[in-house]
Amino acid sequence: SALTLLGTALWKSDRLTEAEETFRQAMKAFEASRQVESNSEDEIAKIKSFQPQASVSPNLQQVLIAQNKIEEALEIAEWGRARLTTELLARKSSSSSEQSSQQTVQNRTPQNYCQRQIQQLDRYSHSLPPEQAQQMTRQIEEFEQQCQQTYQTSQQQIQQQIENSPYAPFLSSSVRILSSPAKPPAIEPPKIDKIQQLAREQQATIVEYSIVSENDFGKTNSQEDKLLIWVVQPTGTVTFRQVDLTPRNLTLTALIDNWRCFDNEACRAQNRQQTAAISTRSVPFNQETSDQHTSQVTPNVSNNHEPKELHSLLIEPIADLLPTDENQEIIFIPHKSLFLVPFAALQDSQGKYLIEKHPILTAPAIELLDLAAQKNQKLQQQNSTFKATIIGNPIMPSTGEPPQQLRSLEDAEKEAQEIAQLFNTQPILGSQATKTSILETLPQANLIHLATHGVIDDIQGFGIPGAIALAPDERSDGWLTSSEILDLDLKAELAVLSACDTGGGRITGDGVIGLSRSFVSAGVPNLIVSLWKVPDRATADLMTAFYQNLRAEPSKAKALRQAMLAAIAQDQDPVNWAAFSLIGSASAECGICNEIVAIP
């Protein structure tokens, strides 16, 4: 922190060379201290340990730009993106090594291993009625003793214990935790030559944003002064542009929130008063309107000025650098509040949507494009029997105080039925879609489609916001949380979270912490999430059209674009289609496309 403050003072004194060196020293110091946290099993502790270095990156970016070191500034921007997700993916990848598994058993203590399981079971017990909670507390104590003894005996016996345990669904991550290295492998952010190589491999135009402040003296909660934009074209050419944000009445964050408020003037008034303190910002959660597929459609937003104003800030400065071929993808790498922007619905001065000009993807970091492509290629080579987990309208769990059961979603059920028919498989509906059974099927699925309710709050206090509603049973309350998904090892090529706010969460220096990050970290290379509360019928139509398009167009970005263009042709309001965002790699092959049966 002292080095960051000193670097800022040198920067403001125009001693740029010294400022650069000091900021780089601060980065090394933060990285060294963060390695201490990297051994922790607590994801929240890791996120907090990353926050200080997130304040160094924007300052160093500006110092490099002032010296016309554009490509080096892009490298630093990448250094601050999705580091924890990248490390977790690398750790899971290396866990297949028998040597690392043996090393882990030697390095872990029974106390640490068992304590993690005890905490997980204890959190679940809090949601049970008093008598069941007391009974489970006694069982937890017995489990702890057995766990200690079994762990010390052998890894094979502990795996057997997990499989035989009545609480197996809640302990499903144990074997993977066992086999992951105690210390994640060192991951270096990509240098400019690697970034250029990725652009060529993706054959897509990559646009990376960075929101920075000129007066950020080591603080993460500061005003938004500049928007830095790098465009990496498929040829590998890197171009830089920047936008001055200071002449504006509203911050960029407030402008985005105004758009997301739609026609709610009270929400807009609150945004006009808010500061730009966005590093710990969460999307508000309202229990009464938190449903996936809400039955009441949000008021028309077509006449709002925000889509055009955001287009003028985000797209117009780089419009001449974007592809002229409407079939060439654009991959946006957002920053801070830009993760909540529906890029597809940005409008130019003539009112034309961006999705009408280009297929669009997003990614938390350029580096993750490479990891997604590698994972996708590995999945294609496995040649496993196709399995789909397609869920629609489970018997809903309860939430709130006093607990109230969420309402049924008839169109979500029809959505699952229609999509399952395309893959010649059976959907999992109603009482069959229990959390217990779904946890058993998810790790084997090539395709995951969840048409249900979603909430953005950390409803069970696990530490990471976001949960998907599944059917409760005697062993589960029905809520599949981000924390639980994070522990899974998924093999799905695509996961579609057809629920409300699944792309939201807590915005940190490492990106959005929520459902989307958990699925990506669990190994899913392609993911479709929503940015707000979406209407039930329109969502079902959009999703069905998306899968139908995949039959003729084996590009997920282009298939989603065609589904959105069909909605636009029907003069649908953007609230019906623009919420959904594709996270993934443009170069990824589509294995599930071959599983779609002929469409009448």
Topology:
Blueprint: H1 2-12, H2 16-37, H3 43-66, H4 70-79, H5 83-94, H6 98-107, H7 110-125, H8 130-153, H9 155-164, H10 174-179, H11 192-202, E1 205-212, E2 226-232, E3 238-244, H12 252-261, H13 265-273, H14 306-314, E4 330-333, E5 360-362, H15 366-382, E6 388-394, E7 398-399, E8 404-405, H16 410-422, E9 428-430, H17 435-441, E10 447-451, E11 454-455, E12 467-469, E13 479-481, H18 482-486, E14 494-498, E15 506-508, E16 511-513, H19 515-521, E17 526-530, H20 536-552, H21 556-569, E18 580-583
Parallel strand pairs: 1-4, 4-5, 6-9, 6-10, 10-14, 14-17
Antiparallel strand pairs: 1-2, 2-3, 7-8, 11-12, 12-13, 15-16, 17-18
Helix pairs in contact: 1-2, 1-3, 2-3, 3-4, 7-8, 8-9, 12-13, 16-20, 20-21
Give an account of the 3D structure:
The chain is an alpha/beta fold. It is 44% helix and 13% strand. The protein has 21 helices and 18 strands. Strands 9-6-10-14-17-18 form a six-stranded mixed sheet, with helices on both faces. A hairpin with a 2-residue loop joins strand 15 (506-508) and strand 16. Helix 2 packs antiparallel against helix 3 (43-66), helix 7 packs antiparallel against helix 8 and helix 20 (536-552) crosses helix 21.
- The CA-CA distance between the termini, in Å, is 63 Å
Strand order in space, largest sheet: 9-6-10-14-17-18
Instruction: Give the CA-based shape.
Output: globular
Q: What characterizes the major β-sheet? A: 6 strands, mixed
* Separate helix tally: 21
Return the structural class: alpha/beta
Q: Give the uncertain stretches in residue-range form.
A: 96-109, 170-185, 270-303
What is the percent of helical residues? 40-55%
Please tell me how large the radius of gyration is: 24 Å
Average pLDDT level = 79
Oligomer: single chain
